[in-house]
Amino acid sequence: MGRDGLGALLPFDICSTLCDNAHMRKMFQYRLFPNKKQVQKLNETLEECRWLYNHLLGTRKTAYEERGESLSLYQQQETFSILKTERSSLKAVHSQILQNVAVRVELAFKAFLRRVRAQAEDPGYPRFKGYGRYDSFTFPQSGFSITHDNRIVLSKIGTLKMVYHRPMKGKVKTCTLHRSSTGKWYVSFSVECEPERLPETPTQVGIDVGLKTFATLSTGEEIENPRFFRKEEKALAHVQRKHAKLAKGTPERRKHRKVIARVHERIAFRRDNFTHQESRQIVDRFGVICVEDLQVNRMVHHHCLAKSIADASWTAFFAQLSSKAEEAGRAFVKVNPAYTSQTCSICGHRQKMPLDVRVFDCPCCHVQLDRDLNAAYNIRGLGLQALGLSVEAPRL
């Protein structure tokens, strides 16, 4: 690839994840099948956590407004013994779960203050949780164990059936239980483990994502855009119309919310499975992976393309590529996407390229390339420059 034409395209953010032999954290998630009594206990635990979260949030808000005092995490945790005497139902919840609720409030305020310091237009003050809006709780250190028959024992809740579909490797650090919008229960274990390195390979790839095709690789391969949401739009519209006809506040309408949630859940499952499989194949094949550093949150403000951009799930794809590359010992680089579609990957000539023009026709070196393939070549060249590796001209 020509260096002269790419000299102005300096990387905006270099995120190389070549790791040492240190431990890393992985998350293992399993489906739970609690019985009716256990579901009741789990829901009661969530409600107690929700009440405590709102209480701690309100206490912080009142202390600052009335006395100008900023309460710390430990000041709030010290009040738990008093709260348990005033609200006896808190005693039915494991103490570490309650401590984690205070940690969540602390993190919410830290994020708020960080946005204030960054002078965000709407910093977003932490909000109170309405009924049903608190859907997970965490055992940070203890209070849980896995039996020899692959069941999970939770303190003050009981022994729950777990679908242990793959073994965990490493030391379990935390355990989080989550209730989905459809009422399903999952448990997630944060595990400290040794990274599983893959054999080294000299292959390199640049990846240009788009809407016509999900991704174009610098090898010339294309990954088809599955458009999961678009395929389910009719089914979603059908259940939403039925939901709109039900009277507000009725048990039927509340029950029917799960039908809508199930359609969204099905879309999310398929999209997540797709991005995991594609990212796994790329990490297995290539030693250096170069992608665009896209600001997707800004791109979805485009009212004509917002739905298609969100459906493509580029952010999740890049996040999974990054985490898999880190564990495998691959180099993962994010580069500035500016002008990658408008610059010739052979001679460096730059010209305007409207979205409806799908072929890059260079008037200088007379090369004709698919615009996405040309961008993939440029992305690979920028990534290799960022890593200090040699940049070769693409094979046409």
Provide a descriptive summary of the structure in words.
The chain has 396 residues and is of the alpha+beta class. It is 42% helix and 18% strand. The protein contains eleven helices and 14 strands. It has helices at 3-6, 36-67, 73-77, 80-86, 95-117, 228-245, 251-285, 296-299, 306-312, 314-328, 371-387, and strands spanning 24-33, 136-139, 144-146, 151-154, 158-163, 171-179, 185-193, 204-209, 215-217, 222-223, 288-292, 331-335, 359-361, 368-370. Strands 2-6-7-1-5-4-3 form a seven-stranded antiparallel beta sheet. A five-stranded mixed beta sheet has the order 10-9-8-11-12. Helix 6 packs antiparallel against helix 7. The longest helix is centred in the C-terminal third of the chain and has 35 residues, at 251-285. The chain is globular and about 80 Å long. The protein starts with a helix and ends in a 9-residue tail after the last helix.
What proportion of the residues form beta strands (DSSP E)?
15-25%
Structural classification: alpha+beta
H/E series: HEHHHHEEEEEEEEEHHEHHHEEEH
Helix count from the secondary structure assignment: 11
Low-confidence stretches: 1-21
Overall shape:
globular
Straight-line distance between termini? 11 Å
Give the radius of gyration: 25 Å
Average pLDDT over all residues = 88
